[in-house]
Amino acid sequence: MAIREKDSTDSSDDLGTNTPGNSVGFTLSQIGLETSRQFAEIVGALGLEPRHFAVLHAVHHDQGQAQQSIGDRLAIPASTMVAIVDHLETAGLLQRRPHLRDRRTRILELTPRGEALLVEALDAALVQEKRICRDFDALERRQLLELLDRVALNLGVPSSALPDRGSGLRPPGH
After folding, report:
1. What is the pLDDT of residues 4-55, one digit of tens each?
2. Greatest CA separation found in the chain?
């Protein structure tokens, strides 16, 4: 059996090592769990769950979109989306209104209270983003995002999908 010579351009040079620090998957999992835990803590201080924040942000970003459309984009199953919207509506953060041409469809809109809370949550999230990227310049941050987008593409993860599909499952330690 011939042993393959290591090519200096070979990106698989660390594949097969047994140390977690050399595993992209392990490292991403570790960072993802901690980032999720911290984000849940940040928005939790405002009375929101990460999935509530995601829906409020999506409604704000795409004003006048149907509930189903927003749920599809976030990869939230319809029954879960209904429960999330019910909660946000009861809290006075968003409202449903009927679609002009399709009475089965509901359009989502933020209330003034929902807009204000979203601004507060975005400000808090920006603090976390700055902490995460503290030692990165703008180019490095863009490069990191591009690399992570490629990883997501390799895994078949849509960029807008919620990691927990809106289930509300929390990372350990929260």
Report:
1. 444 545 555 555 555 666 788 888 988 988 999 999 999 999 999 999 999 9
2. 70
- Tell me whether residue 56 is in a domain: yes
Distance CA 145, CA 141 (A): 6
Task: Report the number of distinct structural domains present in the chain.
Answer: 1
Q: Is residue 12 in some structural domain?
A: no
Domain CATH code at residue 135? 1.10.10.10
Query: How far is the CA of 94 from the CAs of 16, 22, 161, in angstroms?
Result: 49, 45, 21
pTM of the model: 0.78
Is position 19 within any domain?
no
Residue 31 lies in a domain: yes
pLDDT in tens, 22-36: 788 888 988 988 999
HEC assignment per residue over 46-97: CCCCHHHHHHHHHHHHCCCCEHHHHHHHCCCCHHHHHHHHHHHHHCCCEEEE
